[in-house]
Amino acid sequence: MLKTPTSAPSIGFLLSHPAHLIACGFGSGLSPFAPGTAGTLFAWLSFPLLRPWMNDFELLAFLLVCFVGGVPAAHKTGVDLGVVDHGSIVWDEIVPFWLVLVFCPTHWLWQTAAFFLFRFFDIVKPQPARYFDEKVKNGFGVMADDLVAAGYTLLVLAILSAILR
Question: Rounded CA gap, 98 and 63, in Å?
Answer without folding.
Answer: 8
